[in-house]
């Protein structure tokens, strides 16, 4: 198993590229021209699920890039930005094609097979229904865009929180290392002080012994003079 700091990022990136290639064939390839009606709707639903999977791959790439060393992180940030751009482009293309399918369904359902010339309001009613459906579709697209914006903001905030947590963890680890070093220094200083205290006691004992010997010698000298 590859334990390099970029291994997981590259793995997620490879999975993302596979999803994007499949999505590109469905949205821009020959399948788009050959599919109609419900078949096209089914394909677009599959594309939506695949885009969700690709979005998850991008989120994992954002998490893994935090563990890549600063010396090579710039290259991987550029690759991440490219992946995000591809994802955003295909999301926009999916939204456009779904709008086209919805508009086609609306036109086909609102247009009767035959309009009598005796009904002067038939065409106007169809146009009104078409305009109302288009308005509803635009409102739905706006709500979808707003939801995507909120999701992106939440995603960015999550990535920022993860980065802050990682920074705090590094600070705690550095503080722990500093504390260990200080503890070792205190132990060494304590041992040195103990040695100095023992040496001081030895010097006091030796000094007292010398003084005692000198007193005895002086006493002997005095005694010998007196006797």
Short synopsis of the structure:
By secondary structure, the protein is mainly alpha-helical. Helix content is 89%, strand content 0%.
Q: Spell out the helices and strands N to C.
A: HHHHH
For the record, the CATH class is Mainly Alpha
- Give the rounded overall mean pLDDT: 81
Poorly predicted regions are: 112-122
Radius of gyration: 41 Å
Strand content: under 5%
CATH superfamily: t-snare proteins
Largest sheet: none
- Summed up, the domain count is 1
GO molecular function: SNAP receptor activity; SNARE binding
Membrane topology: Single-pass type IV membrane protein
Organism: Lyophyllum shimeji (Hon-shimeji)
Main location: membrane
Name a few traits of the molecule.
transmembrane; Methane Monooxygenase Hydroxylase, Chain G, domain 1; mainly alpha; 89% helix; 227 residues; Vesicle transport v-SNARE protein N-terminus; SNARE binding
Describe the structure.
- The chain is mainly alpha-helical.
- The chain has a single domain, classed as Methane Monooxygenase Hydroxylase, Chain G, domain 1.
- Helices cover 89% and strands 0% of the residues.
- It contains five helices and no strands.
- The longest helix is centred in the last third of the chain and has 105 residues.
Topology (SSEs and partners):
Layout: H1 7-28, H2 30-34, H3 37-65, H4 70-110, H5 122-226
Helix pairs in contact: 1-3, 1-4, 3-4, 4-5
């Amino acid at each position: 198993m590859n334990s390099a700091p970029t291994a997981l990022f590259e793995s997620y990136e490879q999975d993302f590229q596979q999803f994007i290639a499949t999505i590109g064939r469905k949205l821009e390839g020959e399948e788009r021209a050959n599919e109609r009606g419900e078949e096209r709707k089914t394909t677009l639903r599959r594309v939506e699920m695949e885009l969700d999977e690709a979005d998850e791959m991008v989120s994992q790439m954002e998490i893994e890039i935090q563990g890549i060393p600063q010396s090579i992180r710039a290259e991987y940030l550029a690759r991440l930005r490219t992946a995000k751009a591809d994802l955003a482009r295909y999301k926009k293309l999916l939204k456009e094609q779904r709008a086209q399918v919805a508009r086609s369904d609306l036109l086909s359902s609102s247009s009767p097979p035959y309009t009598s010339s005796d009904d002067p309001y038939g065409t106007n009613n169809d146009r009104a229904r078409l305009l109302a459906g288009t308005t509803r579709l635009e409102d739905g697209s706006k709500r979808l865009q707003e939801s995507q914006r909120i999701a992106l903001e939440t995603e960015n905030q999550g990535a920022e929180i993860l980065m802050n947590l990682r920074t705090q963890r590094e600070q705690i680890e550095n503080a722990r290392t500093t504390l260990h070093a200080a503890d070792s220094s205190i132990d060494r200083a304590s041992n040195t002080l103990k040695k100095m205290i023992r040496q001081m006691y030895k010097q006091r004992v030796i000094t007292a012994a010398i003084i005692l010997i000198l007193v005895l010698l002086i006493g002997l000298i005095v005694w010998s003079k007196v006797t």
